[in-house]
Amino acid sequence: MQEKLPTHRMEITDDLDKLLHILPLNIQNAIASHPDKKSLIEIVLDLGRKPEARFVDQTCYLSEEVVSREDLEHCTARVGHFSADNRAGIEGTLHRISAIRNRQEKIIGLTCRIGRAVFGTILMIRELVESGQSILLLGRPGVGKTTALREIARVLADELEKRVVIIDTSNEIAGDGDIPHPAIGRARRMQVARPELQHQVMIEAVENHMPEVIIIDEIGTELEALAARTIAERGVQLVGTAHGNHLENLIKNPTLSDLIGGIQSVTLGDDEARRRGSQKTVLERKAPPTFEIAVEMWERQKWVVHEEVAQTVDNILRGRQIIPQLRQVDDEGKVSITRDPNLAPSNERLPEPQWETMMNAPVKPSGLRASGKMIPLQPESSPQMEFNQLLDNSWYQADEVNKIRTPGPNGEDWPVYVYPYGVGRSQLEQVINVLKLPITFTKDLDSADAVLALRSQVKHHGKLMQLAKNRQVPIYSIKSNSIPQITRALRKLVNMDNPDTPESADLRLFTKAGSDDEIEALEEARLAVEQIVIPQGQPVELLPRNAKVRKMQHELIEHYRLRSDSFGNEPNRRLRIYPA
């Protein structure tokens, strides 16, 4: 199946002259006269070796003279400051200069990567960017991940008018200098002092600047993966890149596997193992993925899209066939989308034998989300099949129980049966257990009294809205997976919420560990709100706390429908609470 999208010409600006200006004269002339300079990717200068130019499909020497220390000093004197990750830039451009040092910290090599603003590069995934779902880009170095991030930032900020914040660790997305490059449009850029602080700046961006979208380049540590999950659970759209060419690489990477839901070993019962035809100990996904969509960038104009990361990961772990969706741009700028069961990956895709086993494994009929751009595996469609597809996005998969009602204190029918969609399971269970709410979960929309869903999920899933409307089931939407948002929605479901008089918060809601330090910090915030901020209308500053405890305090303040900000530098960073 192949679909043609409208033709679109890509516009490219690279400021190549500004990069040439920092190079020795003989290298400048060699590049300026080269017929393929528009496809130049990198210039490599190593002490005592001939200078090299790397193009898309070839590498060549630029001079017969070897690079001297004077040549390297000539270059470094004309670029910006080298940061802790040995990267520098040229102010007002997107070029990146990376240094290689010897044991005495002297520069003995430079890699000058050409940074280009390519307008129109994301046409292949435009509708996915507009969906509001979080997107993860994967691919080898030089395939264009950062270029795509830059264009995504501009489209979201300028054309969709969203509040976009870029976490620019190496000043590679928005260029060197304090003024970001025009290629990112109206998006804002936060610089990172040292690479190891990237995860802290990610959290700071959410706490201080109210973004709707956060863009991150090179998620590479466990702390950054945890920060990404925290951001996603607050209802913020994430667009990022990670180390790894394909989705399978993340499954095998324990540091980054949390981005696609994390992997855990599970022991099955005899009957379940027999039903699956597998061993008793299997690998399964342990949580919803941080990124709902993954894009494998095989080449600059050849991308593979996984629109349902959770489903793809589950299929890979269970040895089922996965059917990649291939999107390509031809020389005329036309985008084609192909989804074919016979589409085989290239030899370089995954050398491991497991891939061949997965592709050739016998397949049981199963449904794919109907997007109009792929071949359905089912021979026909029905409302019940569409509803079953929706269930794949719900974490609640337990067997349905018979509805048993008992009268509430005011004659209500309790418990209330709720169908959860895209809402964090641990937060839901925590709120219900602590507050002892008369609520039971169900996977059967016909027996549900209400649907509880993330607002971003409801907006982009028309089938859920239509099915709920046909069954006359109300949908309660929440902005984010935070404890206060979930608490208010569930209390409203059972008519226990009074927005004018918020009750004193139960501190158990906001801490799972329940350590003395956490309880003390939450009690401090509660007393400040109830004894000073609300009755006296005065702002209050709390004692310095670490980032984890500050997040709990922020959620507690949100419970009282008040605003709070973090300010100051670590380790003295603290909260300030403002009256309504």
From TrEMBL:
Residues 516-580 form the R3H domain. Keywords: ATP-binding, Nucleotide-binding. InterPro entries: AAA+_ATPase (IPR003593), P-loop_NTPase (IPR027417), PTPase_dom (IPR058670), R3H_AAA (IPR034081), R3H_dom (IPR001374), R3H_dom_sf (IPR036867), Spore_III_AA_AAA+_ATPase (IPR045735). Pfam families: PTPase, R3H, Spore_III_AA. GO terms for molecular function: ATP binding; nucleic acid binding. This is Single-stranded nucleic acid binding R3H domain-containing protein.
